[in-house]
Design a protein that fits this description.
Number of helices: 8
Radius of gyration: 16 Å
Distance between the termini: 24 Å
Number of strands: 0
Order of helices and strands: HHHHHHHH
Helix content: 55-70%
Structural class: mainly alpha
Length: 156
């Protein structure tokens, strides 16, 4: 899925202002260079003037900041390195951690979105990429997960 679409979906789901998106992104790294104008450019439609593609670095910092905002920071552990490449699987993992979702919750969210998947299919999404049962998360699955999570967070 395109990074801009993921950012747009999460922003809508949590009803975040542009300034709040900047705040959350800076929770991962206070020195990360992002301003409110950057967020506004990321949120524009790709055919609009002023549209800017959201980089992996921006999305990774935003997702890490979201985890910190919702769960807090564990000062006893060193900060985790920011993902270099943000795949659909990474987005799914970060959202799972941020919202403290268990397998049952994940299945319910996908079922609510009209996209039920089996337990083995779900667990395959969270395996290491070099594991023989690893499975890439497709755009349709991530889109439906975001839709179901939005229904859960915002209500219908």
């Amino acid at each position: 899925m395109i990074n801009n679409d993921v950012l747009r979906s999460i922003r809508y789901m949590l009803d975040l202002s542009d300034g709040k998106v900047v705040e959350i992104t800076k929770l991962a790294d206070a020195n990360f260079p992002i301003e409110k104008e950057d967020v506004q450019a990321f949120l524009k439609k790709d055919e609009d003037a002023g549209y800017v593609e959201c980089s992996n670095s921006v999305l990774a910092h935003f997702l890490d900041g979201l985890v910190v905002q919702r769960r807090g920071r564990d000062e006893s552990l060193p900060p985790r390195p920011v993902e270099k490449r943000v795949t659909n699987n990474v987005v799914l993992k970060k959202l799972r951690v941020a919202f403290e979702l268990k397998d049952v919750d994940m299945h319910q969210i996908l079922a609510d979105a009209g996209f039920p998947i089996s337990k083995p299919e779900l667990s395959a999404l969270f395996r290491q990429p070099d594991h023989k049962n690893f499975r890439l998360c497709g755009d349709q699955l991530l889109r439906n997960f975001l839709k179901g999570l939005t229904l859960r967070v915002r209500g219908s």
